[in-house]
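Q: I have two molecules that I believe assemble together. Could you output structure tokens for the complex as a whole instead of separate predictions?
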Amino acid sequence: MPRRDESSTAWGGRVPLALRVNGVDRVLRLDSRVTLLDALRDGLDLTGAKKGCDRGECGACTVLVDGRRVNSCLTLAVMHDGAEITTVEGLARDGVPHPVQEAFVEHDALQCGFCTPGQVVSAVALLAEGRATSDAEIREWMSGNLCRCAAYPNIVAAIRQVASAEGPPPTTGGAAA
Amino acid sequence: MHPFAYARPDDLGTAVAAVAGDPAATFIAGGTELVNWMKDGIARPALVVDLGGLPLSAIDETPEGGLRIGALARMRMVAEDAAVRARYPVLAEALEAGASPQIRNAATVGGNLLQRTRCPYFRETSFPCNKRELGAGCAARTGPHHLHAVFGGSDACIAVHPSDLAVALLALDATVLLRGPASDRRVPIDGFYLLPGETPERETVLRHGEAIIAVELPAARFAARSRYRKIRERASFAFALVSVAAAVDLGDDGRVREARIALGSVAPKPWRARAAEAALVGRMLDAEAAAAAGRAAVAGAAPLPDTAYKVTLVERAVARTLAEIGGWA
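A: Yes, here they are, computed for all two components at once.
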């Protein structure tokens, strides 16, 4: 179950912080102990990113920081002054779900749904990284997102569908090792 | 998590002075280790100095024909670097075998080298651990210990070092560049880590207040023909049971001129298998030589009941990695 440690209640702290979250400028004053995940969930009421393990092992807290996917539980909010954050709440455009979200629904790529926001955000990043050229590559590059319901085959199918629809993605680096 | 003051200096001298001047201060870079330590009560700094604002993430050519990798370069950035991939493939492979894409986007080269052991008795503070509290005892000695050391352990500690990157750097003869409050130091990676002996809490030669600022890779002839092989309990996103970084330089006659073999997750520090290297030099790189190197790699191993399997695993993993380099695997 998600744990709630004392840092979660440490609002009204001393460190000022400006974030651009899902396209909206937000200003916070936080205790230095608050993780980015707690700042999003408890400070900004964006509860899409989930607190699963709170140790970087499950990926349920995955968000984009300046376009890069990271575990928001493993980083302090105060380290990201001026950063642009995208959570699962920021993926839809004008009420239309992101293609990855549509594909997850179409392929039933979830059971309980707790890991799904992290899976979806991670998949969006994976597609941008150009790491969805085969099922094996999708599995490897989604390895930071665990699904205790083991919806993995459907998650891979959903991502494969979006990758196929988008065509070959731009490469972000050299060939796979 | 205990309260701490937070500072984000915009120059390195200020950052180093801030930590050097306060025994309860520490650096933070990617945060993927320190944040967990603070949550778990393994670290309780009173001041956290963020290096994130400093320009220490570039990958540059050195005048000697090697590469200098800034300490704040993220794991992903180094793994994707074209020069790293072409000239030091073992390094890119080790980085991509480590952690998850999310962690590789955050974790830095310097922080990776300063990871602490994944020994469950160290991480779970309800167990006695000499590394956390000297004299408390070692729960791994009496409890299940299949993740633990077969080389270099002591009565006080048999935990293994978890970094893949450090194993690759050991096989590449890398040097760690340090900035202290008074001076800079260059430490060969082979001398950077300490064996536990009776002081398992001391893991590196880093002094309080010193920061890793870069890692330098020499222009070694063996670097381009190099591989990293990692054996885990699941296919991805797991720490190694055993890993091998191997690099081989072949002469025009096809014989091994020089070799580097380093092992991961078998000792409290990345472990150089010099006997295995010696077993290769002067020979054709073939299955027989690879098998001999595998046997030599485990000479002197001191396994405990739960780690005996690692000896077999290392022997085969070394031979298999050399087979991949030789092109017959």
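A: One point stands out. The helical segments of chain A are 36-43, 99-106, 116-129, 135-141, 152-166.
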